[in-house]
Amino acid sequence: MRFVDCNRIAFGAVARYPLRTTMMLLATSIGVGAVLMLTAVGESARGYVSHSFRELGTNLVIVIPGKAETSGAGAGVLSGATARDLTLDDARALLRSHAIKRIAPVVVGSISVSRGGLERETTVLGTTPEFATIRQWKMALGEFLPNVDMDRTSPVCVIGYNIRTELFGNRPSIGKWLRIGDRRCRITGVLEAAGTSIMVDTNEIVIVPVSYAQMLFDVSGLFRIIVEATSRETMDRARRDIVQIIRQRHYGEEDVTVVTQDAVLSTFDGIFNTLTRALAGIASISLIVAGVLIMNVMLVAVSQRTREVGLLKALGATRRQIIALFLTEAAFLAVFGALAGLGFGYLATSGLRRLYPDYIFMPPVWAAVGAFLVAIGCGLFFGIWPARKAAALDPIQALAGRQS
Amino acid sequence: MIRLEGLCRDFPVGDQVVHALDHLDLAIEAHEYVSIMGPSGSGKSTLLNMLGLLDSPTAGNYWLDNVSTATMSDDELASVRQEKIGFVFQSFHLVPRMSAFENIELPMVLAGLPPAERRERVMAALGHVSLTSRIEHRPDQLSGGERQRVAIARAIVMRPAILLADEPTGNLDSHAGQEIIDIMEDLNRRGLTLIVVTHDAAIGGRSRRQIRMKDGHIEADTA
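Above: the input entities. Below: the structure tokens describing the complete assembly.
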């Protein structure tokens, strides 16, 4: 039997029962579509997170006080508990490394700010002008913190866009005094409104000089030092230099954790990749269900066409030919279903993109190819039994329409 | 051409064993026209299935063209059926979703013949059964006589040596039945060995050689 003829006969059988074919198409296409949709969601979550991390700046190395035992966020990282603080002098010393372009020490705390009768609790970030450069912050009004020595506790501040709206409304804010805790700062600038980025909501923030924040919260240490390496290639060099410099300054003790942006990114990438694969795996179960349905449908087909099988045998069809005919029929059901599923999946994800333009709902190519192949594989696998059953029929019984 | 020696076919029915064929000996030469008659249950259909290699004997031997069929595998039997034997059934056994043309073509499709040759042979076979129009029609659009003509065309399209017909006129009116018999007899005159199972004495009586069966063995043979 020629390949073309085998396909033609099998296709004839598929076309002969349009309702059955449509139902099978639906079952398989839902499975394939589900894989595409779920992996698209997983991928877009991954894309969102890695995009957010990139927005933090480029070639970043973060120095955290305390030695974490694991590379991720260990107990020490979260609590910041350490024997020895990171100081402004430590931060300044890091600039000795040629691999380091700029640094920004960070102190963070929560405190109430007020102006006139309006008061609210907010996050206060103490840092230096370099921080705005690293994060590529833009100003809506005025200027960022003055570029002076980081030890100076100038009473100035920059406020987030929402803070300005809530405390000042439409009235001018630049040059006005803002009460932070029990002190007063003059507002020099307002940050441009921005979308929520991970870690900090820049709309809801007040930024003061780092020494001023230390005074405000009565701390001597730093929460973090953000370091920008001169290039991607020098990040590792910067990392080693940081460890060495801090160790020198801390009497030989390596009591800081140094995290590179790449390491964090790849950790999150890994987590989200695993998540996407898990989603794909879960959705694949529906492909197996579709496969079982194909098996069911093919068993019905074999019993409906018992006489035809008997005839084929009388006409000299071999076992292999009968298996080939029924398997091809099952494959057609699976292939058409899978194609419909691809169409359905891409259509649905493009619908999602329209609804949520902020996220990139795009099924990864491996998911599309994988779902397609798994669907066909399931169709074939579950088609084997009915096909073998047909091939094993006794010709005389089959011609009489009996399946024994 | 066909030689049966001590052929037995037993069917277990409950605790008992029914001897559908009971030590049957038979020889049929090429180009013969044989009718097999007998009451139902006499074993004539079993004999025909046996001759058509659709069934295998419980005991005994079947030589076809001096080759023993006893040791053949299923696939070898299939290929002998394909090359040497054509079947005509009482209920036609046409594939309902295929046109007359496709039905006739089917054995050649299974044999893997190229499409051009298939078309040529279908046309030649249609000439033999006097059916040239309506070949694109599906079986349910054809009359009984036309269906059986399509079935005969399908049976001879592989140019077999033997045509086995099981009650070929059983589902036809007498006029259409007569036409079918005429077609098959014409094919026999052209050299095809024709074996017809029937319980219609008028049809059985037309053949040169008549075999009467009873209880699984041959009661009378005019040869």
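Note for the figure: Residues 261-304 of chain A form the longest helix (44 residues).
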